[in-house]
Automatic annotation (TrEMBL), chain A:
<dbReference type="InterPro" id="IPR019095">
    <property type="entry name" value="Mediator_Med18"/>
</dbReference>
<keyword id="KW-0539">Nucleus</keyword>
<dbReference type="GO" id="GO:0070847">
    <property type="term" value="C:core mediator complex"/>
</dbReference>
<dbReference type="GO" id="GO:0003712">
    <property type="term" value="F:transcription coregulator activity"/>
</dbReference>
<keyword id="KW-0805">Transcription regulation</keyword>
<protein>
    <recommendedName>
        <fullName>Mediator of RNA polymerase II transcription subunit 18</fullName>
    </recommendedName>
</protein>
<keyword id="KW-0804">Transcription</keyword>
<comment type="subunit">
    <text>Component of the Mediator complex.</text>
</comment>
<dbReference type="Pfam" id="PF09637">
    <property type="entry name" value="Med18"/>
</dbReference>
From TrEMBL, chain B:
<feature type="region of interest" description="Disordered">
    <location>
        <begin position="191"/>
        <end position="217"/>
    </location>
</feature>
<dbReference type="GO" id="GO:0000978">
    <property type="term" value="F:RNA polymerase II cis-regulatory region sequence-specific DNA binding"/>
</dbReference>
<dbReference type="InterPro" id="IPR019364">
    <property type="entry name" value="Mediatior_Med8_fun/met"/>
</dbReference>
<keyword id="KW-0804">Transcription</keyword>
<keyword id="KW-0805">Transcription regulation</keyword>
<dbReference type="GO" id="GO:0006357">
    <property type="term" value="P:regulation of transcription by RNA polymerase II"/>
</dbReference>
<comment type="subunit">
    <text>Component of the Mediator complex.</text>
</comment>
<dbReference type="Pfam" id="PF10232">
    <property type="entry name" value="Med8"/>
</dbReference>
<dbReference type="GO" id="GO:0003712">
    <property type="term" value="F:transcription coregulator activity"/>
</dbReference>
Length: 237, 235
């Protein structure tokens, strides 16, 4: 029994090196007006896999935290943070972390998610590609992040439907504003008169073929929804 | 007199030869019809008729022939007995030269059987004329219906292209910014303001309005807009 004891850290780095972690998110975004959302849901029901069970609904609260990397360098032994560090190679920008919880299933684990900078690529790339890591956590994660020095940037409520088509995930969600001090407001105020439509796939890096599948699927939803690569950094001037 | 007879003989010989040609041509056509019906096409089939027509016009157009109408054919001897010579000459078609058959064979019209069939076919053709006109009427009616439906589709598709838009670029940008924005949302992109809510879907579909105008819609809570226009909505 002389085999070296492998630590979680070794396992993690090995997994990252051999490219088996689905840490790339391929993404297309669009929106549909409230008046046409029924038509879109109907079409998605026909196109997607979960025909018989109908779409899954969700009602989630998402909080976005940010932290400067230098501030977390002292707790690098926390494996998740290490993983994030490996993925997030730019040092200057703040690290963004998102916490998401289901409002309709209070006892479900919470989700901590890191999303990297979106790469738009050139015209030959059909989708946005961004790093993405998910981890299930307990409901104390907000306290934990606050202790680390993370700052709550913004939060919102997303409520809508999820469809699956093979590895692809389609969400149709209404985005609502959060009330003061993180309270769920009694009458929710929607961001706009449209539903946000997102088509995404999580895959290990280098699997660019899936992006082509997504482009073809997005074509099938036109002209109802224009799913596109949207660079929201363009909005910041 | 003798010269005329000779002429008649040679004319008859020529006619018999042509008739034989015609017979082989018809036989060839029937053979084709029976054996090559899978590969036979209309142009080839109709060629046969052109051939028949050519032969027929030659039969009657022999230049030195005396006028056959002026001559009479007289059956000199009838017999109910079987005549082997006749059988051989007609290739097994007519066994006897008897009184019940001769009038049919020597008459100048077509055979009674063929005549009867001809009459039937002509009647059918006349009937068919009526039916075709009937069908034409029905087809015209269907054609009209299809045309009307097409016009409706086209006008509908045209109006759909201009009117009913189902998504708005401005809303897409607003939503994507709302869930993905890192630091600040520029004031023009302020979303979820009451002023924005008054935008009807119809207006939203007009395209991508200038960002700065989105706050200008009249609102009951104007002070709110001013106050919040510099801050992120979630902060």
């Amino acid at each position: 029994m002389s085999a070296p004891i492998s630590t979680a850290m070794d396992n993690l780095t090995a997994a990252i090196r051999s490219n088996i972690i689905p840490n790339q998110e391929y993404l297309l975004q669009g929106s549909v007006l409230d008046s046409a959302v029924e038509v879109l849901l109907h079409r998605l029901r026909g196109l997607c896999d979960n025909v018989d069970t109908g779409p899954e609904t969700f009602n989630d609260h998402e909080m976005c935290f940010s932290i400067r990397l230098l501030e977390i360098s002292y707790c690098l032994q926390i494996h998740m943070i290490v993983m994030l560090y490996v993925c997030f190679r730019g040092a200057e920008q703040p690290l963004l972390l998102r916490v998401r919880r289901a409002l309709d299933y209070q006892d479900m684990p919470w989700q901590l998610r890191y999303i990297g900078q979106p790469e738009l690529g050139d015209k030959s790339r059909p989708t946005i590609v961004r790093s993405s890591l998910d981890i299930a956590t307990s409901n104390t994660v907000v306290d934990f992040l606050t202790e680390l020095g993370c700052r709550l940037d913004f939060e919102y409520i997303a409520r809508g439907y999820m469809f699956r088509k093979g590895r692809m995930k389609v969400t149709v969600s209404k985005i609502f504003k959060m009330g003061q001090q993180g309270k769920i407001p009694e009458s929710m105020e929607a961001i706009s008169q449209s539903y946000l439509v997102e088509l995404s796939v999580l895959a290990p890096s280098g699997q660019d073929a899936i992006a082509e599948d997504m482009r073809i699927f997005a074509e099938q939803l036109k002209p109802l929804v224009q799913l596109e690569k949207i660079d929201y950094k363009r909005f910041v001037h | 007199m003798q010269r005329e007879e000779k002429q008649l003989d040679s004319a008859l010989e020529a006619i018999i030869m042509r008739v034989n040609d015609l017979k082989t041509a018809i036989a060839a056509m029937i053979f084709k019809l029976e054996h090559e019906y899978e590969t036979l096409n209309w142009p080839n089939f109709l060629d046969n008729f052109a051939l028949f027509q050519g032969i027929l016009s030659k039969i009657l157009g022999h230049d030195k022939a005396p006028n056959l109408r002026n001559l009479t054919v007289l059956p000199l001897r009838l017999s109910p007995e079987k005549d082997d010579e006749l059988l051989r000459l007609t290739e097994g078609r007519i066994p006897t030269f008897a009184h019940d058959l001769v009038p049919d064979y020597l008459r100048t019209k077509v055979e009674p059987q063929a005549e009867q069939k001809m009459i039937q076919l002509e009647a059918k053709a006349a009937n068919l004329n009526y039916e075709t006109s009937h069908y034409t009427k029905v087809i015209n009616h269907v054609w009209d219906i299809a045309n009307k439906a097409r016009e409706e589709w086209e006008s509908e598709a045209g109006s759909r292209a201009t009117q009913a838009q189902t998504s708005s670029t401005a809303d897409t940008h607003a939503l994507v910014a709302a869930v993905g924005m890192v630091n600040s949302v520029p004031s023009g992109m302020m979303v979820g303001r009451p002023g924005n809510q008054q935008q009807t879907p119809g207006q939203g579909s007009l395209g991508n309005p200038p960002m700065g105008q989105m706050n200008k819609a009249p609102s009951a809570i104007k002070t709110n807009i001013k106050a919040a226009s510099q801050i992120h909505p979630y902060r």
